[in-house]
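Appendix B: a complete holo record

For completeness, this appendix reproduces one full record from the ligand-bound portion of the collection. The bound molecule is zinc ion. The inputs are the chain sequence and the ligand SMILES; the output is the full three-dimensional arrangement of the complex, encoded as structure tokens. No fields have been trimmed.
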Amino acid sequence: MTNNAWQLTGDHGKRPDGYEEVIIYSKTNRVSCMGEHMDHPKVYYTIPDGGEVVCGYCDIKFRMKEEDE
Ligand SMILES: [Zn+2]
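The structure of the chain with zinc ion bound, as generated:
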């Protein structure tokens, strides 16, 4: 008899209060960021293949917009 004691608690991407994830999708792998309200100097990032880059100033995430058909 198997005692399956795993408790699946709902943690599907749940974040602590006050943290709002901002993701911007780009068609190119070159992105620039000045913050949501232009509140930091303009910086450029390159999105790695199949990945994402996080702005070091404001934590906005940039991902490539996938256009699979
Ligand atoms: Zn930023």
